[in-house]
Amino acid sequence: MSVPPPSATEQPRAEARRQQILCAAAQCFREHGFHGASIAQISKTAGMSAGHIYHYFENKEAIIAAIVAQDLEDLLTLTAELRSASNVRAAMIERVAEGVLDQLDPLRAGLKLEIVAEAARNPRVAEIVRDADIACRRGLTDTIRDIRRAAGHADDEAAIASMVEVLATLFEGLLLRSIRNPGIDHAQVIRRIQAAVNDLLDQGS
Amino acid sequence: MSVPPPSATEQPRAEARRQQILCAAAQCFREHGFHGASIAQISKTAGMSAGHIYHYFENKEAIIAAIVAQDLEDLLTLTAELRSASNVRAAMIERVAEGVLDQLDPLRAGLKLEIVAEAARNPRVAEIVRDADIACRRGLTDTIRDIRRAAGHADDEAAIASMVEVLATLFEGLLLRSIRNPGIDHAQVIRRIQAAVNDLLDQGS
DNA sequence: TGTTCTAGATTGAACGCTCATTCTATGTTA
DNA sequence: TAACATAGAATGAGCGTTCAATCTAGAACA
């Protein structure tokens, strides 16, 4: 046994450079898409030479994968937070408001759509996206099961799974709406989606 | 005034070639995305030389625009059909079933997502997408206004607009779900979305 | 403290390849 | 023959990636 190798926290410079690259890449991907953005553009945005990027990432696809993984982490923390609330149902309805606003931000929406479009054809990205979705659904399933039990419903797992699916559909659909209709009335849509989620939780199984 | 120029129907060969190219392009775009697919690939899939494609389309972006316009036409006819039903509400709920299935086909979903992702950064595509969305919303707005009036509700236009928005969100969200969770239980989701649409139409304004 | 050494950070040119697009030459048809 | 359909090579630009050469900061040593 020798001394442990220097970890990431012991190499703040390397980690900072990685983040610098990821930040620049996210911006370029937003503006030109995964395939439209070039390493040359990313390197210029990041303020370093093109060759240097390959000291931190094996290739362009590794950058894409890192961006995808980073984006999906937010989703996981959001669904996890939900479970820790005392009145879960009230917390969920309340959370809808900020969730809707998040999804309606067209800047984020563009990158998120790019990610799923890429997942439709790139198996490596698809795996990352689907793994994150499974974890996300698991959290929502537990949350909804609790809510339904507390209200006296006796659901089978398939019924709960389909509620989760519709809940996810409502949120993710907003990503498309923010692009297709930039003039959405946010406040009205928030209220109406809150009502829809409320109705969903009371549907017969 | 001279003789009218030969129309598309008078040049069936040219129109057939155009469709041949569009069909090949759609397949390539589905597999590799707008920027990942090359003219060489499209020409090989279409069974003609690369150079020949430029006799029918000015450039690659014109092919993309044509694909986008073609895809959005389906949407318009669907919302238009809805209005012609006798019992509009029942027709809408019934249509949800096939609409959901359509949106859950991952083959179509990939191209539709690619289109919206492209719209997020390409102004020309954005314009086509938004114009189609406006027309689509106009149709749905009329339909929902009729349904609500028949049920005795007195809504302002903003209330109806937000209902249309949530309805669109529900459908378009399915595109993302079909990619993120390929194992969806279609039948259950159809029933639950039908119920959600039903509830939506009864929400207070 | 001043000097040398060294390993990692960084650059920028070069590589082979593919891209979208153009051009010229040859078929084909009427 | 006139007009159009088609092929395929050519063009120059840009791609992702590699690599040899330089710079730089700090350790080791005097």
Written account of the structure:
Two copies of one chain form a homodimer. Chain A is mainly alpha-helical. Chain A contains nine helices and no strands. Chain A has helices at 12-36, 39-46, 50-53, 60-83, 88-104, 106-119, 123-150, 157-180, 186-202. In chain A, helix 5 (88-104) runs antiparallel to helix 9 (186-202), helix 6 (106-119) crosses helix 7 and helix 6 (106-119) packs across helix 8. The longest helix of chain A has 28 residues, at 123-150. Chain A is elongated, with a radius of gyration of 20 Å. Chain A starts with 11 loop residues before the first helix and ends with a helix. In chain A, 36% of the residues are buried. The model of chain A is unreliable at 1-10 (pLDDT under 50). Chain A binds a DNA duplex (30 and 30 nucleotides) through helix 1 and helix 3.
Supply database-style keywords.
homodimer; 205 residues; mainly alpha; 9 helices; 0% strand; disordered N terminus; DNA-binding
Sum this structure up briefly.
Two copies of one chain form a homodimer. Chain A is mainly alpha-helical and 205 residues long. Chain A has helices spanning 12-36, 39-46, 50-53, 60-83, 88-104, 106-119, 123-150, 157-180, 186-202.
Radius of gyration of chain A: 20 Å
Low-confidence stretches of chain A: 1-10
- Average predicted confidence as pLDDT of chain A: 92
Structural class of chain A: mainly alpha
The percent range for helix content of chain A is over 70%
Question: What is the number of beta strands of chain A?
Answer: 0
Strand content range of chain A:
under 5%
